[in-house]
Structure formats: C-alpha cells, structure tokens
Amino acid sequence: MHTTMSDANGTNGAHHENGAAGAQGLAAAPVIGAAGAPAADHLEGYNYAFLDELSKKAVRRALLKGVAIPGYQVPFGSRELPIARGWGTGGLQITLSLIGPGDVLKVIDQGADEGVNAVNIRRLVERTSPGVQTTLDTADATVIQTRHRIPEQPLREDQVLVLQVPQPEPLRNVEWREAETRRMHAEADYSRMWVALYEDVVQNGRVTRYAGYPVLVNGRHIMAPSPIPKWDVPKLHMAPHLSLFGAGREKRIYAVPPLTSVVPLSFDDYPFAVESFGGRSCARCGSLNTYLVSLPDERGGGIYICSDSNWCDGALAAREEARP
Amino acid sequence: MTAQPLPAAQVGQTGHDHPHLHPHTDDQQHPHPAGAALASRPGHFAPALRVDGLTKLFGRGCPECITLTGPEQETNTCSVCGTLVACANVSFDLRPGRTIGIVGESGSGKTTVLRCLYGDLTPTHGSANLAGYRDGGRSIFEASSAERRRIRNFTLGMVYQHAWEGLNLRISAGGNVAERLLAAEWRRIGQIRERAASLLGRMEVPVSRMDDFPAHFSGGMQQRVQIAKALANGPSVVLLDEMTSGLDVSVQAGVLDLVQEIQRDEGVAMIVVSHDLGVVRLLCERTMVMKNGRVVEAGLTDQILEDPHHPYTQLLVSSINA
C-alpha cells in the first residue's frame, strides 16, 4: 500500500512519503471536494474518499436499489482501486461512497482490526478522506467495513455494516450460468438449491455448510451472506442496523435493510444451528458466548480465543477492572 | 383437425377423484360423461386441456410459411424464407383422466407440441387452456414466467425421451423426485423421503437404491425414476415423450405396464408421444397422426388402426402389421 501511494505521489510530482510511520505530513495539499480544512495526514491529488463523485453516486444508486429490493443483487460498474480485485474492493467502494466528515470508520478482517488488509483499507480511507476518524471500538463506529465476521457487540440503528463479498451468487454451486441464475432469482425458482441441501442431509446426515450459509431475505430472495460463519447469520435477522454487501470482482451490490427477515435455509426436521464450541471459553478473556478460533499453543496443542479482537480486548479489560 | 367430442360409450375410466396434493388441480372434477351440454355451460371448462391452433416456427417467418409447408408439400421448411414450421394449427381436447396419443415420423412435430405445452419452448401462435390454471379461462401461453413455472411444477409432469433431459444424473434418484416436492414447499426431510420412497417403490425402483445416482441406473430404471418424478406432485396432465424408445422390448413392456397401472389408479390425463403405433394402441383411446408439422388424421385409436384414411397413416399401419 505504501509503495502504491508513493508511486502515485511521484507521478504527481509531489514529494515522496518515506514509508515509515506515515505520521509526517503531506499537509496543505488541497483536496477536491473536501469539506473544511484538509487533515494533517492525507494524500495530495486525489478526490475526497479516492473515488470521483460520479462513481460514488453510481455506487449509491446501486445501494438504494439494493435496499429497495432486499437480497437482490444489483449490478454495478466496479471501479479500479489501489488494491486488487478480490481483496475487499466491493466493500471498499461502498465505504468510500458513503463516508464523509464526521464519520467514524472501523475495518475488520476476520474479526481482527490488525489484519494487513484491514490496516491498509483503514489507512487509504484516512489519507483520502479528511474529517473521517478511524476506530477499533465497535461501539464508536458509524461505518464498519468487515470481511468474514459481524462484530460480537450488537450493532445499533445508527451504524452501517459493510461486508466484503467474494462470491455474491448463492446459486453458483448449483448453476454456473449467470443468465440462468438470474432467471431463477426472478422466478423464485429455488428448488435446485433446496435439492442440494436435501442431498447434503441425505449424504452427511446434516447440512454441512459453514461459512456463507444461504439465507432467504424478506421471504423472497436467496442471498449469500458473504462468508461469515453460521454464528453470525442470526445477527442479520431483524437487525436494527443496515447491512450492505459489495462484491468488487463480481460487480454486484446487495443489501439487507434494518428490521428485515433473514432466515437460513433449513428443513423442519433438520433445523439450522450455529457452531458449537463444546462449552469452551476464550483462553484470553474468558468469554463463553463468542465465536472462537483455535490457535496452536507452545506445547503443540490448541487454544481457543475470540475471533473478534476488539470484543476480546474489552472483555479482558472489564475482567482486569473487576479484579480486586 | 380438432378432435371430435368424445362419444359417451368410450373406453377408459371416469376418474379424477384421487386425492390431490395441490388444491389448484382440484377444480376439474366433473361428473362423467362430460357431454357437450356441460362444456357449453358458461364458466364451465370440461377438458383438462384444450389446445387450439398451436404453431411453432423456427425462423423469422413469412406470410407463405403455412401454405408452402405441410404433408401436401412434403416439407416443413418454407421455400420463400427458409423458416422451419415445426408444427402448425395443432388443436385437440384432452379430458380429465384420458390419454391421447400423438404418432408420426421423426421431425413431424410431435415433441415440439409437448415442449410448447410444458414450457420448454415458446409457441409462435395458438393457445392452451388448462383446467388447473385459472379454471381454463386463460391460455397458459399468456401466463407470466413465474406462473408458467408454477403450472409446470404443480399441474404438469413430463417424461422425456432421454433420461438426462428430465433428470439430474448427478443427484440421487430420491433427490430428483424430491426436487418437485421441494418446489411445492415441502420442508420435512422425513416426509419427502417417505413420499419419494413410495413413488419409487411403485415404479419398481428398489428403495435401497433411492440414494444412488441415476447415472448408475439402467435405461429402464432411469425412465421409471422420471415417471416417479413426473407424478410426485399429483399433476392433472402428464406428458410422455417417446419414453420407451431407447429401451429393449422386455423393459419397454415393464414400463408400459406401469403407465397403464397409473392410468388406472391415478386418473391423470396423459399425452403420449411415440413413433411406435404399438405403444399408442396399448395406452391411448384417441390418437392424432402428425406429418410435416400437421395433424393429418385424428380420432379413436381403434378406428385409425382399422380404417386409416390418410395415405401416411395407411403406410404407418401397414408397416406395423407387416
């Protein structure tokens, strides 16, 4: 990311960033479209929030259509970004189109704020969008861009969740032709999806899907909730917050508006169930009711800790505080 | 070319009184015989299916297409514009629980008629009124694509000539039958498997092979799975397209026995397409003979076989008697 930015500055004839902490300034550079005085640490020669205004408008139009038809995949003209397609460009374009001065952004990669992808995305937004604060704290954020997780902390109605989506088409496993999947969605012809789940139960005794469990949104469209674990799927159902899904490589945007039903596909006699951790608690903060991931420990065994690092930090701090 | 009204003394069962799985097919129970007086009563639709003027062109079409093709011209390709007239002005009535046969040589348009009715093809002209769709008040060709899918899932069943057209060979036999039940919003695996097992059992597919892939089945067994699938939702009309063509004679006999049993027990109306007059003689009270996309003769099967009028039918009949 640093290299990319330095190159861009070089071609613009501006002075080079030294690539260290990124603290020293490219100050005083005017930013087109920026409201108020430019912040201390931003890039010169770019539009506010990197994308040009018409592109952002196009993305917002797609978002509005997605909100109007919950779960429907809206095609959009995915723009070039300084990160490669497949690395969160869909989510990033949504974030860049929505964000403005006064917003507080949190970026998560598989639950952690420190993932290299999350750090880079956060830095790009910081440097192109003066007036936008970033945070690690879920409760403080107005916009949360995430990959593969929904925070443990319940979201509020004034927060927007932006999910990065690698494969927006839930029917792709049963039908590879795009024209055919679009027809299937249009006619709500989902029997083949159901047959795939039936076959799964018959062969394996249960539905064996974990990440990206297919859901029925608003009783109409089958939707891929992005590869979040089953654990997170119930958090979308009748949620107070707005969820936006962006697939940059596949050029699709879709949405789950607040207070919309999101029901995982399941059979009456084989109901949907979230992951079970066998009563384990987080080895770090002791939380019992969170989504855990396993890490190898020094003795070659495995320990389980919270996948949501911000939640884990908070729980740990609360425990320290409670200690006499 | 419209088939004449059925005579009262016709063979075949009265039945359309078996328990239906879907209420939309229930509005066609008529006392037998369904005479002309009943049919003319306003708002009353006697046939299970009435097809009128069904025409399918492949190509851009021109005003001469219909006159320049047909059995007299011995072609179904228009000499002016090159359009293929797959079938033209096909009309017939199918009464509940009865079976009509369509015979003819390859390329005569038999399969095109079935595919238009099932929704695999969109016809160029014509109408088809199905008792199960808006009481027959509107042609199914005017239905929206979502309605069309509903008709296909609930009111019709189709058995294709090739098993791979009607079945997904890479999902289990039970899964293939389940597809139609799932389309009808069955959501209990236990119930679905019960229904699939009983259907497959009736079709003499061993229930122990229910979870095997049809790709590993014999041709006769694949066709029996197809029939089980077609019957899964209790359709009012089943379309059978050359279902015995690829099978050897003893297996053919087994499948035909089964179809006769279904006619007797389920009371579904059927359209049987075959190039084999023997199949039609066995299964159908009434028959249409098609050539070059036209119906050249229609009537009671026995009459057609005893006293064929059209030269083509005469040829067909003499060839099986030889």
Summarize the structure.
Chain A is α/β, with parallel strands linked by helices. Chain A has helices spanning 2-11, 53-68, 89-98, 116-128, 178-186, 191-204, 309-322, and strands at 74-75, 104-109, 133-134, 143-147, 160-164, 215-217, 221-223, 242-247, 252-256, 262-264, 292-296, 302-306. In chain A, helix 2 (53-68) packs across helix 3.
Question: Helical segment tally of chain B?
Answer: 11
> How would you characterize the largest beta sheet of chain A?
7 strands, mixed
Distance between the termini of chain B: 28 Å
**Proportion of residues in β-strands of chain A:** 15-25%
The backbone outline of chain B, from C-alpha atoms, is globular
| Number of β-strand runs of chain B | 9
Tell me, rounded to a whole number, the average pLDDT of chain A: 87
**Biggest sheet of chain B, strands in spatial order?**
5-6-7-3-8-9
Helix share of residues of chain A?
25-40%
Structural class of chain A: alpha/beta
Question: Can you describe this structure?
Answer:
The complex is a heterodimer of chains A (324) and B (322). Among the domains of chain A are: 19-164, no CATH class; 292-322, no CATH class. Helices cover 27% and strands 15% of the residues of chain A. Chain A is built from seven helices and twelve strands. In chain A, the strands form three sheets. In chain A, strands 1-9-8-5-4-2-3 form a seven-stranded mixed beta sheet. The model of chain A is unreliable at 1-39 (pLDDT under 50). Chain B is α/β, with parallel strands linked by helices and 322 residues long. In chain B, α8 (249-266) links the parallel β6 (237-241) and β7 (269-274). Classes of the chains: A alpha/beta (324), B alpha/beta (322). The A-B interface holds A 183, 186-189, 191-192, 194-196, 198-199, 201-203, 267-270 and B 145-146, 149, 153, 168, 171-172, 174-176, 178-180, 182-183, 187-190, 192-193, 211.
